[in-house]
TrEMBL record:
The lineage of its organism: Eukaryota, Sar, Stramenopiles, Ochrophyta, Bacillariophyta. Residues 1-24 are annotated as: Disordered. It comes from Chaetoceros tenuissimus. It comes from the Eukaryota. The keyword Zinc-finger applies. This is MYND-type domain-containing protein.
Amino acid sequence: MNEERNRKECSQCHQQKTKDEFAKKQWKKPNPSCYRCAEYTKFSTDKTRNCHQCKVSFPREEYAIYQWSKGSEALCSKCCDQVTETFMSKLGSEPDHVHNDDGTSFCAHGSEHCDICMVDFTLPNMIARKRNKLGRDLTQNEHDALFRKFNENNGIFISRKVCILDGQSMCPRAGKKLRCPCDEVTYCSKACQKHHWMIHKMTCKWHLENQEKKKAKKEKQKKNAVDELTEEQKNFVRMEAFLAENNGGKGSIDECAHQLGEHPLVIGGGTIRYGPDGEEFVKGDVAKIYRENCGAEWDGAPRFGLRPYVPRKNPEDWIAKARQGKSQRQTDFEKGYEGKFGVSLKDAAAAGGNPPSRLQTAMAQARAAVDKVETGGTNMTSEQAIAKLSPETLAFMEAQGVSGDKLGTIAKALMEMKGLGDDGINVD
């Protein structure tokens, strides 16, 4: 009983249809039209119609739905089959087309566009007539104008009310219609939409606009992130990319330059030097490099003279590295330099960049040790430090009049310089 309630006969195709094959407004009518008939046929109460070719009157069932919608030009199923047979018989044979001296062409029936002959000479004839009128070959702009006009007059009509996959095996022909946001195609279910998406996404204006917006937003965020970096931070990652490229990290310079929005030769043509602030990066002069090596003037483009940038599979986030400041490599290098020579890299660079003498190193180490002891940076007590001194050192201290707290401080400083080792320090 419920099944009968959910089925009605279409007033046009006279077939029993389920409720989801009718629009809501149509379902409420006493003589409803299904989705397909409402879209593809003109509403008619006619039970029969004369065939345009054989002139015989046939009932509605003898016409295909697309033919019935043509009204007085409709062909019955028998005549449609004859047209198909005529077409199939002509396949592989030379067509009887007429090619005139003025460049225009027509089919055997004298038509530019013929469904029977399956030809369309409309566009070639438009070009030929335009060329004859001007008395010369057409320019590219004139060709494009004719092509646009041809497309306007011969546009492909896509129904707004019927699923674009209607009639296909995967189409369930559900009643609810889903319209793509681009307003170009309609689907009857999510299954149809997913199946057709691989094709439609190539032309979907809504999808393309969204992609452009996302790309523009990403580029803006990237530019803002770069603008927030200081030149010092940029130099940190330029130096790291330069060293990575020269130690087997292929593509590091290209990748870093792309993220910073600059030419790779800014990094690749640069140098590393030791300045007052430690390691410093000197940017490459791109214009000078092109002028001297290529005989060309750089136009300022970030990929001038290079192929388009191709991202690596696992790209490095050089912007994030720049925000971190000095790399662990730079920090370790500076600490190692100071530990070896007893003076900071900055002080050494200010003094001319030469390593300090042994006396300068010893004095610097002593100053650092005393500072550490006086600020409570060591856990060793005075008694423990004095106990570790050799007898010769103690005798030397007593001879100099050093005792009490002062002796304890010096002993702890000496132990700090020794690295809190087990051996005593003999001061001569």
